[in-house]
Every structure is written in C-alpha cells, then in structure tokens.
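A favour between colleagues. Tell me how you read the following sequence-structure pair.

===
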Amino acid sequence: MDLLIHTIKEQISISERDIAIIESLFHRKTFKKGERLLSEGEICRYIIFIESGLVRYYINNDGTEQTHYFNKNGEFVCDYMSFLPQTPSNVNIQALEDTVVYRISAEGIQQFYREVAGGEKFGRTAIEQVFVNVMKQIVSLYTDTPDNRYLKFLSNYPDLVQRIPQYYIASYVGVKAPSLSRIRKRIAAKR
C-alpha cells in the first residue's frame, strides 16, 4: 500500500488520520496473468490502483480484440464510463502479468471524497488525467499513421515494450502483427 499512499501524496497533502481512512477503504486483491479485472457486460464497481503488474484495456469487435490502453504499477485502472453511472461496461480489462492491486468501491470513493482532506481535489485531478489520456487516444486514432502511433507507444511506454506481447502492441497501434514487424523495420532503418 506504500505506493498508493505515495501516489496520493504526490497530488494532495494527507495526515495520519487520512492514511488510516485510505487503508480502511482500499482492499488488496491479486489477479493471475490472463485473468480479467473487468469483463464486458459487467458493471465496473471499483477504482483500482496497480501496486505491481500490468493490464490492458480492450474491446471485442466482431470477434477481434482491439487493445486501447495499458496501465502499469503506480497507475489507476477503471472503466469510468461504467463506474460513474454504474452501467454495464463494453470494455475488458485483463492482467498481462500477475498483478497486485488495491481497489476501492463506488461507495468507498464517495467516503474518501467526504473524509480525506483534499479527497475531492484528488478525484478531480485523477479524472482530468484520464480524460486527457482518452482524448489523446481518440485524436491519435484519427490523425496519426500507424508508424506514428507506434512511435508514440514507444515514447509513452518505453519500459513496457519487452513486457507486452507484440500482437497486443500491434492491436494498440491498429495493425496486424506482420504490419507491426514492417513498421519496426522501417523505424530501425531510419535510426
């Protein structure tokens, strides 16, 4: 839980009392590699903080998995489009490695906002970051070539390239695995 407390402290000042509240609201859970943290059709009931591990967000589009995002240790995971209104999700979130998380329920996050000094500020800041990341993804899908999307992937996730299977990276870039191999060769030739 130390990484969670540290991450919260980076955004807001918290007291020992606040830490005790946080420790009572966030609960540890482990997911094995390949296990889903959320499945399409389920309601997202938790905001999840990754203590260690790696996850991907994907949708199933007519039998084809399309990867949209990755989260690693030190980051929050949630399908806010399901969590906020408590409606069924159209997203799958899957552990790509054995993953240890701390999660807080919808009721728990409301208690966090009420009882932790600066809790609402922390929540607003976190949602703003999610919104900006989602908008960047959408703009990139419409404006970037696959080569540029791969270069952005390398820039955004330099420490994850060796941890994520190439076919998930290809899906994230919006191409098939053989096309990703060609993109990688072109980029390597330019360097």
Q: What stands out?
A: Residues 45 and 107 are 9 Å apart (CA to CA). The chain has a mean pLDDT of 92. The helical segments are 2-11, 16-25, 80-83, 106-115, 119-143, 146-156, 166-173, 177-190. Strands lie at 27-31, 36-38, 46-52, 54-61, 64-72, 76-77, 92-95, 99-105.
